[in-house]
Every structure is written in structure tokens, then in C-alpha cells.
Amino acid sequence: MYAASSPAILCAQWIAWGLIRTVGPWAIPGSRGTIELPEIVEITEALGLAHGGLSTAATYRRRDVRSGETFVATGSAGSLMIKIRQSAAALDLEQRMLAAAAEARPTTFSVPRPRGTGTLSDGRAWSAQEMVFTAPHRPCLQLPDGLEKELADVLGRVDGLQPAEELAAGQPASGELTPAHGDLSPWNLRRDHHGRLWLFDWEDAELAPVGADRAYFEAAVGVIKPDRPVGRLLRPGATFWERRLADRLATGHPQGPNTIMRNRLLQALETDRSTDQGTDTESSELGKLASVRNGDAQASSEKTTMGRPGELLSKIASRAKGSSYSLDERIELPDLAHIATDRALMRARAIMALGQRGTTAFVGRRATLRSKRNIHLGRSVTFGDGSLVDALSTDGVWLGDNVSVGRNTRIECTGSLRSIGRGLRVAENVGLGTDSFYGCAGGITIGRDTIIGNFVSFHSENHNTERLDIPIRDQGVSHQGITIGGDCWIGAKVTVLDGVELGDGCVVAAGSVLTAGTYPARGIYGGVPARLLKERS
């Protein structure tokens, strides 16, 4: 759930998850036993679920004494995350916050669906919400544009937010108080394995000084990335959280993370990386801060690398492609591990499917290769998940170095067994997009360095229609073939019909239809049928 978020821990989680998915829970070390969780029975009944609605549970206790227990319960009702606390106030607040977020429908983040609250027989309070994760997830280390605005909209929809405890106890606050999440941190703002961003743990929503949420987020990033520079902060929020963290350290909270976060805020305040809210010089100060931050970020990026795993993968990719290739330094270790594992499995499938010829290829899941003796590959050719290549033809399918066949893309060289087709020739460094169709009966040739978008279709065959006395299907077909030059860009959902000759360096607008004819080089074409819109110069 919300375990430590260091790259090493996240990588270990992915490995453990894959092992348990393959072997089952018996892969987990340790002794076996049975525990009784009467709370689950009570909650199942309170939610009105049938017997067995929640039949299996995993539980953990936070080191933080302020929290109670948290369960993940599963059964015929699906998966729920259940919190049990001594007080109902925070749980009720969280449920109202989740309902408000569902009503606001933010686009920069998602929240679990609330399922209800109640009281156990021993007087403790409980709440239930949707459990959204089905695979390991990772922390978000940068607030997306627009998130803070949408968060403020959600928080503003809930009445009755109280000032932070420290402010209620008499701690001075500079400036106005605004609604705040209260625990906006990378371990509560997490991205699932599909890339969707989720914001959790709304129990601590409160009224706090302006900029409090961003201050805490920037401070918390340092726990995971100690060398990451502190972003721009507003002084009221930064001062508030520095004092709160000092109080936590004095009252026995876990020391390490809080010490790191407080030191980052002190550094930000001492180096004037913050700016006061509402002053006449705010605009100029923000401009200075942006310049400083950009300079620091640039200096930091020159020093920061992905480390040895990233460098190793870059070298492997360069060797496979036969040219220099460098991975983005911002890719984190868990993602690198996932990418490396996926590519290793694709290579294994290629060897199983193609034998010796597959030692430099990559084959995705559910990819199908037919008439393999007619498939000729360069280096580092990739067949995406669900792709199909049927190479039954006179000339076969030739794919040059670094060609990729997108997910769910079909390459069919023969339309009828009465007369097999010609085939497909693709030069090096060409990307064939996803969910596309290439009918190669009349022959298709694609030049080097060409980009072809998603959902395109190529049809190098026409039905004869001259006679009226017999059905069209019995009149046979004609072929002229399709030729696409090098360094072209063909947009999404383009249709290319038989007889097209597209020159080098052309651009074809999305949704266009190229009909039979010659299209001169370096033109930009669009429309149905496509026509010259302008020339590239």
C-alpha cells in the first residue's frame, strides 16, 4: 500500500509482485497461520454485503501511533480499503472529501470512491473506500500543472474545515488561511501502473496558511530524492510546516523523514527561495525565484543520472540499434526494471518464434508471425503486442534495422489464395503505428526514417468493376502497388489506396485519403481526397 517509496523498495515490490502473481502467496517467506478479524464481519454486515462479500483481508499497523489499523479486504464485493480509528471525525471528513472530489471530477488526479462509515461494537470508527491498485504503484515527485487549482476547488466544496491544530493552539499565522489537503506528499500522490494519478489520505484536510500544501510536498520529495532542489515556496506555508515538523520532532514522531523535511524548509527560508504572499514586490520576487530555480535545476540535471542501471540499458539499446541511444535521465529505477523485464521477455519470444533470426528482434505478447520463412529482419525489429504479420507472398516481408510494428497492427500480404500477393519492404528506422492495417497484395514499399501514425490503413489492391453482368467479387482484382518515400510523416487515421506514389519528405494530415497518383516530394497534403496544402521549404 503506502510502503517506503525509494527506487530500491519500489523495484523490490515489482519483483515480489511478479513472483506472487506467478507462484501464489506461498512465495512469501515466513510461518503460516490463521487470524480472526471480527471487524471484517461487522463491516460486511454494515455495508449490506452478502456473506463472503469480504472474505479475505490483509492488515498492517502504522508506526505512527496516531493511526489505527488499515485493511485491504477482498471478496465477491471486490476490493475495499478499510480504515479503523479511535475517532470518527477524521474518517467522516475524508468520506466527505472523496464525495466532493467525485462531484468536482478533477482532470489532474483521481480519488477512490467512498463506500461508507460506521462504528464497531467496541466503539472504534471505521470507513471504507474503493481499493484502486492491482499492481505496484510509484510516488509522483512533481505536482502536475493545474493540480493545485483543482485541489482547491475540491477542498472549497466541503464546509466545516477547522484551522490546523497548531494555529488553534495559538501558533501565529502570517496571512490568510485557506483550505489545505494537510498531507500532500509523494506517498499520497501516486501513479498506478497505467499512468493514472491518484490522491489519497484526506483525513488531515484543514485550514492552513497559503502555500502549505506545496511546502510540505516539496519538503517530502527530499525524503525520496535528497539531491532534488527545493521548488518555489510561499513563506507563510513554508514557515508553518517548518514549525509543525519541529513540533513533531519534539514529540517523538519518526525522526529521519521529519528531520530531512525540516532541513529542506529551513534551507528554503534561509536562502530566500520563498516569497511573501500579497506583497507589492511579489511579481518581481517570483521572477527571481523562477530564474534561480531554473538555474539550480539545470545544474542539478547536469549532475544527476539514472545511475548504473540506466547507463547499462542505454548501452544495450545502442548496441542493439547500431547507433547511439540514451534513455531519458528522468526515468526512475522501478520503471527501468519494468522496461528491462518486458524487453527481455520480448527477446525470448522472438528467439522461440524465429530461432537464430530472433536474436536481435523483440516479439510482444499475443503477436503472430505466419509464413516465417518469408520474413526477413534487420537489427532491433519490434513486433508490438497483438500484432500480426502474414508474410505469404512472392517477395515476402522485409523489415530494416530499428523498424517497429505497433500494437494490434496487421500486415497481410495475400488477399486470396487464388493469387498470392507481392509483399512489403520497409527501410530502416521506420515506425508503423498501432491498430493499423497494411494490405500488401500489390506490394508496399516504405522509405527510411518515415513515421506512420496510429489507425492508418494501406490497400494496395483494387476490385475490378467494369462489367455489370457478373458480380464484382468474380471480376478479379488489379494491383499497382504503393510507394512511400523516405523521411515522411503520415498522420493518424490516414487511408492510402492502391497506386499512390508519395515523394520524399512529405507530410500527410490526419484523416486524409491518398488516392492513386503521384504526390511530389516535400509537400504537405490533406483532405478527402488529399490535395497539396503547402510545400515544405
Write the layout of secondary structure elements.
Elements: H1 7-23, H2 38-46, E1 56-61, E2 69-75, E3 78-85, H3 89-104, E4 114-119, E5 125-130, E6 138-139, H4 147-156, H5 165-168, E7 177-180, E8 189-191, E9 197-199, E10 206-209, H6 212-224, E11 233-234, H7 235-250, H8 255-270, E12 274-275, H9 282-303, H10 308-321, H11 333-354, E13 361-363, E14 368-370, E15 375-377, E16 381-383, E17 388-390, E18 393-399, E19 404-405, E20 410-412, E21 421-426, E22 431-432, E23 437-439, E24 444-446, E25 451-452, E26 457-459, E27 462-463, E28 477-478, E29 482-484, E30 489-490, E31 495-497, E32 500-502, E33 507-508, E34 513-514, E35 517-519, E36 523-526, E37 531-535
Parallel strand pairs: 11-12, 13-16, 14-17, 15-18, 16-19, 17-20, 18-21, 19-22, 20-23, 21-24, 22-25, 23-26, 24-29, 25-30, 26-31, 29-32, 30-33, 31-34, 32-35, 33-36
Antiparallel strand pairs: 1-2, 2-3, 3-5, 4-5, 6-8, 7-10, 8-9, 27-28, 36-37
